[in-house]
Specification:
With 151 residues, the chain is mostly helical. The protein has one domain (30-150). It is 83% helix and 0% strand. It has helices spanning 3-29, 31-45, 48-52, 62-82, 87-111, 119-150. α4 crosses α5 and α5 (87-111) runs antiparallel to α6 (119-150). The chain is flat, with a radius of gyration of 21 Å.
């Protein structure tokens, strides 16, 4: 092996080690969000016959409530993991959740022909996202004010 090849292999090892470290740090810092994302993916691509089994209470549009709840949970988890405080972080976390839902909605009929994309689902996703960010905003302000009054 020539010195140039040896140097290139060592560079590659260094890049792979760095990439692995960064990837593991990302996973460690976002584990709850990743779990919720996989849950959303699973529920989004399963057959509709499997979903009807979840509608135990026979609530009309239960799937829309589920959309809102799942994206509320996803956004709240992102907010919690990153302790969002700045306006740009609110926008970024909302955008991440929204784009995630949009991509899933676009690919739903492609991956599972029994499923269809619906604009109303995207609106309910957005409702859950906005609710989570709003509650996180007011909760963080309340706790900050409470902490200020205690000290």
């Amino acid at each position: 092996m020539s010195p140039v090849e040896y140097k290139n292999i060592n560079k590659l090892r260094l890049y792979l080690t760095f990439y692995t470290f960064i990837s593991m740090k990302f996973i460690r810092n976002n584990i709850l969000s990743i779990i919720v994302a996989f849950l959303i993916i699973f529920l989004s691509f399963m057959n509709t016959s499997g979903i009807s089994k979840f509608n135990i209470l026979r609530i009309n549009n239960a799937d829309k409530i589920m959309h809102m709840f799942m994206y509320f949970l996803f956004t709240a988890t992102i907010s919690y993991e990153h302790r969002i405080k700045k306006r740009k972080h609110y926008i970024l976390s909302g955008l991440v959740a929204f784009l995630f839902g949009l991509i899933i909605e676009i690919f739903q009929p492609v991956i599972n022909p029994a499923r269809s994309k619906e604009i109303i689902d995207i609106l309910f996703n957005l409702t859950g996202i906005v609710l989570a960010l709003g509650i996180w905003f007011f909760l963080s302000k309340f706790l900050k004010d409470l902490q200020h009054h205690i000290h």
